[in-house]
Amino acid sequence: MVTIHDVALKAGVSVTTVSRVLNNRGYISESTRSKVYRIMEELNYHPNEIARSLLRKRSNIIGLIVPDVSHPFFAELANHVEYYAYQDGCKVLLCNSHLDPVKEKEYIEMLKRNMVDGIVMGSHTLQVDDYRNLHSPIVTIDRQIDEEIPYISSDNYRGGELATELLIAKGCKKIAHICGNLELKLLANKRSSAFRDVMSRHDIEYVIIQTDMNVFDHAQYGSIIERLLREHPDVDGIFATSDIIAAFALKGCIKAGKKVPEDIRIIGYDDIGAVSWFEPELSSIKQPISEIGRLSVELIRKQRDGEPFIRENILPVELMERSTT
Hints:
It contains twelve helices and twelve strands. By secondary structure, it is α/β, with parallel strands linked by helices. α5 (72-87) links the parallel β1 (61-66) and β2.
């Protein structure tokens, strides 16, 4: 097995020089740098990444834990986190928790063993103490779990306002709000708070339907829509807190013989890339998913390098009106 000593001997330089080239430390002439890289290639030398991580006290690996990577929002988030991590010289370890606390804890232990530079938490099934005891850079997405841990969220309250106000402006007289389970302490619940506040201000009749605790279980969405239309046939507006739920609402309304948007108007949340695939095209509240991914990587880097960072990061949203409203 080729070692760093073999590279140094053939290149005619010291082991320290080879180490500086590998770690990009100190002044090294371009000719020496090129020579060392050429010898490494000739000898097929691959640095021991674990040893280098111990030396540098960094691995250039970021852990990303999501509840369901098949969900379009988290798929897009993972795509952006990986892109910006790579631009920053890091790789990403993707962990799919499926909202299973045992599985999530096993993933966290694995990430700790691999000495990742930090963890982006998109899944939150563990108790807060499990996060506090990590002693590692953390960024949470859409959940505030500690005064010291930075978090990123879209402006959920404003998003809820925009969606509800649009349906009212379009003349809706009875509006249904379909959301995740509000017992989960997520910042996304502010979308529902905004819905209630706006509806109360306008004194318009409304109904709120929550999913069960497994908010990403698509199988329940169809039955929720069927029950809503059966029990409240006069509903003429639906605000769903995800585009996937909104897509099921669109499908269910068409199946029930309702025209969209003539009989009922629908708006979702997230503005995932797939909304343009639907017919009619789905109105939505756009979360800046790319910026969430970029900022996640930046906050990990700043914590890792001891730089000052902002703990509360609330990003603006945008109303994207399309054919369903």
